[in-house]
Design goal:
single chain; two-stranded antiparallel ribbon; elongated; 118 residues; mainly alpha
Amino acid sequence: MERLTNKEEEVMQALWKLEKAFVKEILAELPGKQHYNTISTIVRNLEDKGYVSYNAFGKTHQYFPIVSKEDYTKRFMNLAMKRYFNNNYKNLVSFFAKEEKISAEELREILEIIENKK
């Protein structure tokens, strides 16, 4: 699975939400002013990378994701874990604690999830 650019991820987020869409529908989901041809090119790149496929309706295409958001998230998180946290979840949690992005209450909830998983 090839890594996506920020713009490609943005388009994929819209497609995951819509489940299937024409370029004009994807365009409507994206923030700010976007150009139709730019989004159309990004969608075709996503097709080339194996993230989306389409159903043809004459000369127009309705696109749909063939990589789930969950699969992409797993891949992205595994890559981030290796690159930034030495594949160590303690380092990940410590990072967020130091940055004050996670509270003690949230950590207790995580511990409860882990302990009840048995």
